[in-house]
Design goal:
The chain is built from four helices and no strands. It has 141 residues and is mostly helical.
């Protein structure tokens, strides 16, 4: 190749190494695409955000009723650690208030009435707590 054109040298990998390198490259590209980290020029966009978020009062109601129903069904007398339950301090206070009322209702009118009261009180208390937006005063609130 003495005509001045650059020579094209063919680069090849040893036969037994080539499939392994190819699999690794394909796997890396697939993982990047799944993680939303694909090359912006590749045409692969990261996943779209959720079209709906759960309002804080609804999330509070779900969490409080879940734990209240569970503790009532288990007959548990302790409340446990609010952080391990995924509750804020304020949500934990709601849970304690709801459970106290539900246990009294259970003694008077049975478990079905206690569950109904739990649902009503949790929804009412959580709606009131988040009426003006997310409470302030610290991340645990």
């Amino acid at each position: 190749m003495t005509d001045g054109a650059p020579s094209r040298r063919r680069c090849t990998l040893p036969h037994r190494l080539a499939p392994s390198v190819a699999r690794t490259a394909v796997l890396a590209a697939a993982l990047a695409a799944l993680a939303g980290c694909a090359d912006p020029g590749s045409g692969t966009a990261p996943p779209a955000p959720s079209p709906r978020t759960t309002p804080p009062e609804e999330l509070c109601t779900r969490l409080v009723t879940h734990w209240a129903h569970r503790l009532l069904a288990d007959g548990g007398s302790g409340y446990g650690d609010y952080q391990s339950m995924g509750l804020s301090n304020g949500q934990y206070e709601i849970l304690r208030t709801v459970l106290d009322a539900a246990r009294a209702e259970d003694r008077s009118n049975g478990p079905d009435a206690a569950r109904e009261l739990t649902d009503r009180l949790a929804e009412r208390s959580c709606t009131e707590r988040y009426r003006g937006g997310v409470p302030t005063g610290g991340p645990w609130q």
